[in-house]
Write a structure and sequence with these properties.
The chain is built from 9 helices and no strands. The chain is mainly α and 179 residues long. The radius of gyration is 17 Å and the shape is globular. The relative contact order is 0.07.
Length: 179
């Protein structure tokens, strides 16, 4: 319910629904549910409300919930990705690169380095490198993402457009107009 409310632009209601989900999960000792709800709470704080300080304050609680839930790799990938976005958008390029690399590494461990399910952490890593001025690395990450998507879904897969847009944006920043 919280994800739906957030998707349709009702962030306050989404936060309230998610807070209730966290409380219910913790009361029922559902560590996996609590971890997922807290990761979503972090996403709401940072992406929805753009409150970096509150998101940082919530990090220890999210990390503890993920640990209690058994350190599921998917939860750790989501957390590392959000941490990378947080650091990227608040200007700490080194920390952003570290978290983005960890998210990609965890995703590759879970799915394999040639699986299309690693595309989102791969694109995040590319955006972190592009933001910090490392255009060649961003180009290679975007190109790899486009290759994985095309291999998995064909040349008409909708996610390919996003990957190619990222590649084009990186080429634009590298003054490679004709490409």
């Amino acid at each position: 319910q919280a994800k739906y409310l957030f998707a349709v632009g009702r962030a306050d209601e989404a936060r309230q629904a998610n807070d209730e989900s966290v409380l219910l999960s913790e009361a029922n000792r559902d560590d996996t549910g609590a971890a997922r709800s807290l990761v979503f709470a972090l996403r709401l704080l940072f992406r929805g409300e753009r409150d970096a300080a509150a998101a940082r304050a919530l990090l220890p609680r999210v990390e503890a919930a993920i640990a209690r839930a058994g350190n599921r790799r998917s939860d750790r990938v989501a957390l590392a990705s959000l941490q990378a976005e947080l650091e990227r958008d608040t200007g700490d390029a080194d920390a952003a690169r570290t978290h983005a690399a960890r998210a990609l590494s965890l995703a590759e461990q879970r799915f394999g380095p040639e699986d299309a399910r690693i595309v989102l952490p791969l694109q995040l890593q590319a955006s972190v490198h592009l933001r910090s001025g490392d255009v060649p690395t961003a180009l290679s990450k975007h190109a790899r993402a486009a290759t994985l998507i095309e291999r998995a879904g064909g040349p008409t897969h909708p996610a390919l457009a996003t990957a190619l847009d990222g590649l084009g944006h990186s080429q634009y920043n590298d003054d490679r107009w004709q490409e």
